[in-house]
Amino acid sequence: MPDIAIVGMGCRFPGARGVRAFWHLLEHNTDAVTPVPEDRFDVRRYHSARPGEPGTTVSRHGGFIDDLYGFDAAFFGIAPREALAMDPQQRVLLQVVWEALEDAHILPSSLAGSRTGVFVGQATAEYGDLAESDGHQDVHGMAGGRLRTMTAGRLSFALDLRGPSLMVDTACSSSLVAVHLARQSLLTGESDLAVAAGVNAVLSPSDAITYSQGGMLAPDGRCKFADASGDGFVRSEGVGAVLLKRLPDALRDGDEVLAVLRGSAVTNDGQGSGTLLQPAVSGQTEMIRSACRSAGITPDQLDYVEAHGTGTPVGDDVELRALAEVMGGEGRPRTRPLPIGSVKTNIGHAEAAAGIAGLIKTALIARHRTIPASLHLRTPHPALAGETATLACVTRNTPLVPGGRAALMGVSSFGLSGTNAHVIVGEYVPEPHTGQLSQGTSDAPEEPRLLLLSARTPAALSRLAARYADFLDGGEGRAFTLRDICHTAATRRDAHPHRLWAVGRTHDELAAALRALAEGEETPDGGTADAGFTGDRRTAFVFPGQGSQWLGMGRRLLASEAVFRRTLTECDAAVREELGWSVIGLLTGDGDDSPPRELPDDVAVVQPLLWAMQVSLAALLRAKGVEPDLCVGHSMGEVAAAQVCGALSPKDAASVICRRSSLMQSQAGRGAMLAVELDAQDAADAAAPHGDAVCVAAENAPGSTVLAGDARALRLIAERLQAEGVSCRYVKVNVASHSPYMAELRDDLAGALAHLTPLPARTAMLSTTRCEPVDGPELDAAYWVDNLRERVRFVEAVRTAGKEETVFLEVSPHPLLVQSVTAVLDEQGAAPAAVATLKRHQDDGENLTRALGQLFSHGARIDWNRYFQGTAPRVPLPTYAWDQEQFRKAGPRSGARRAGRARTGARTARVGPGRPGAERPHPGRRGGRTAGALRRGRPAGGGRHRAAR
After folding, report:
1. Beta-carbon contacts of residue 820 (< 8 Å; ≥ 6 apart)
2. Nearest to 809 by CA among 602, 632, 580
3. pLDDT of residue 332
4. Residue ranges of the chain with per-residue pLDDT less than 70
5. CB atoms within 10 A of CB 29
6. What is the DSSP string of 244-265?
7. Which end of the chain has less neighbouring CB within 10 Å, N or C?
8. Beta 259-268 vs 526-530: how paired, if at all?
9. Which spans in 369-433 are helix H?
């Protein structure tokens, strides 16, 4: 049987909000037990220093997770009323599993419809009991708060998972039994990915009173595992989750393997102890041996065991004697006693989540090769004393010393009803050339890097940007190259509606841009935008007419980008064949070391030059993952649009642009062009008194039109309009395009292009000559005659395209139409989504990188794997920054207020019984496939098992 890989982990434990914080707590030997917080219950009402006093508990302490009632309901598409009814164990689990998926670099959206199983250990539902006692009973409260069965179903629904989904209640061994069942589901092929989790929340004093009456709670609130003076445990909370895959599948998918599950076993004590509630040595020894057999090892090969380790006199004695018996029976050398420990000495007894806490700790031990100290051991239990002892409790941080090639460790968990679980955890040591990635990819310092972030709300996005800035500033982020960080962020995180991009060449530059954006400041190195509800807008490539050329354009791309250089070389050959001169030579200096001092003004030179730039930029954009869904051209830009959409071959496109511009040059000096700040109709009215001498040449934007024709007539129009306060300016061209002068070229151009054989377009093209979609074959000689003579109906084309959610990318050396597109979209009430590719006299590479960032932020589809070209180490990035709102129903025992209150995040929500707005749907979006509102399933009853082992 294959090993099972742990590929991701997430947690909330006392003193630790996340896996990294959990390891920090363990490594620094932190005791996270505290007095019971007031928002759980008023422990003063129930505490008594006299053991056994009816209705009281001797313990005033516990382990409590931070912000138990905080939840980002809108992120999961859950309305406030439903969130209020949900058990906080369900709420926290949703967020923890999302973080585990991010830790595993698995896109949650990719799991929709998959055979992903969910196995959750949970033993209590005290929140539902409180809500019931509060007098608020409805179907939401029953399903969300009192039925433990809904915890797994809630997660499966939120992520649209189709594998098995079940709850496990074996008291304190629940979550480790869930791990065993998840492993079995993977081995049988029932699941391809499994979530194994455990949850526990301490909301009521009732269980503590019961345990205290039974003498199970430590008066000082500490679990003193393996200490002869151990006098009980302390209750604690916890939520933990691991993501499991078959090891071959994990390696195939390029996942980082944190540790492997070599084997597992679940057994019951039966009548081994003679008492139902007392553990049995025989049951535990058989459990360990059975787990080792399933792993194909013997117990003496274990290098560490994470014990159940509650610190109770009976429980510790049985567990230590069982371990000693197994180790002694296997002949473990006395010189190498088995290291043991218990996470309960740090965080308390998390009951149903105790096993998952031990498993996550053990996986971290394998990862860091360090065994953290177990705390509070003063007088070792007799099983640890003497020279013949085969066990040694780790009391200071100790290196993990494997007995073989890879370390082997066990994790134990025992339930009150006698159900025991043990999992064999192996350190993962990759075989040579298994595909596991390592750090240290080269990162050229001069290369600008693009970081992409997203969130469901602007406030969450700002906090996420600040987290990433801290990550880049700190030592953790500096251990990775910027390329690897940016690659992981782009390809291993789901994209949400509110988006941010930032560019930098160093960690410090990128962090500075992020901090500015997080604080709402403008920076040229980054920006934010709303990508819309779907975050999946189509992309329109817009190719402008003449005027974007500048000296030096394209030189850096020609030197650094192979796709741009190859396409430009193809264009160069086509222009040489048509006109006898070199595009590349003109840009760089005809092959010598002295580039030109200025570009010619001749339309017969400028237009072929710009066409070559446009189609080469389009090819480069495609190579970087940006595919157009629509092509739109303005005047001569339609030639590039026709080629890029596939309707014209490169050879035919070169014929059109070269022969068109050469014929236009024959009209040089005749006529002029005047840009006026008028709508097309008003501009036409201004030209009407001059008859056929002047016409509307181009409709560029609302309030921006170009007139063309007789120079004298245009001068008279300009004088009159300026006197009326209308701004006018002459266009710097020597040819009056789209004017009556061009009609004289009709026959010559038709003859010159008679050979064209247009093809069916592969990408949609919207004609600005006819203002309708074109399929390709109609782009014959007659079309290009009209293209030269008829007005450019750009405004109407953008209006048509803008009826669908579209991001417009101007593909040119300098933006001419971005403002025009923005004006049209503003007129329609659409979000401005127009982006420039390059800008005059600025670094081409930086501008192209910024353009891609802006495209992402506006919601354009981009294949980031193509952009980053190749694999890279998957960097452990910061997790999502939740918009935490407080959702809490309080029973009469706590004395707390009845309503939920927001404490963290950007929003404040008042929800609760009797408050206005409790019935209103949440203002947040139902975000794609992560909407998790409970809408189905008939509730089913279930008993409670109190965990006390």
Report:
1. 700, 701, 704, 794, 795, 798
2. 632
3. 76
4. 130-146, 330-331, 388, 432-446, 590-597, 890-949
5. 15
6. EEEHHHHHHTT----EEEEEEE
7. N
8. unpaired
9. none
Cβ proximity of 495 and 531 under 8 Å: yes
- Amino acid at residue number 927: G
CA distances from 179 to 118, 754, 820 (A): 10, 73, 59
All structural domains of the chain = 4-430+883-929 (3.40.47.10), 458-536 (3.30.70.3290), 539-666+745-847+856-860 (3.40.366.10)
Task: Give the side-chain half-sphere CA count within 13 A for 897.
Answer: 10
pLDDT for residue 92: 98
One-letter identity of residue 885: E
Number of CB atoms found within 10 A of residue 270's CB = 11
Alpha-carbon distance of 460 to 457, in angstroms, equals 5
Residue bearing tokens 């705390």: 375
Contacts of 529 by beta carbon, 8 Å cutoff, 6+ apart:
499, 831, 833, 854, 857, 858, 859
CB 941 within 8 A of CB 92: no
Give all strands (DSSP E) within 13-145, no chain letters.
Answer: 34-35, 61-62, 70-71, 116-121
Query: Which residues have a Cβ under 8 Å from the Cβ of 862 and sit 6 or more positions away?
Result: 624, 625, 626, 852, 855, 856
891, 129 Cβ separation under 8 angstroms: yes
What phi, psi does 34 have (nearest 5°)?
A: -135, 170
Among candidates 191, 174, 198, 291, which has minimal Cα distance to 245? 191
pLDDT given for residue 333 in this prediction = 75
* 8 Å CB contact between 198 and 120: yes
Specify the pLDDT at position 272. Answer: 87
Residue 20 belongs to what H/E stretch? Answer: helix 19-27
- CA-CA distance, 99 to 12, in Å (whole number)? 11
Separation CA 850–CA 833 (nearest Å) = 14
Helix H segments across 384-481? 458-473, 475-478
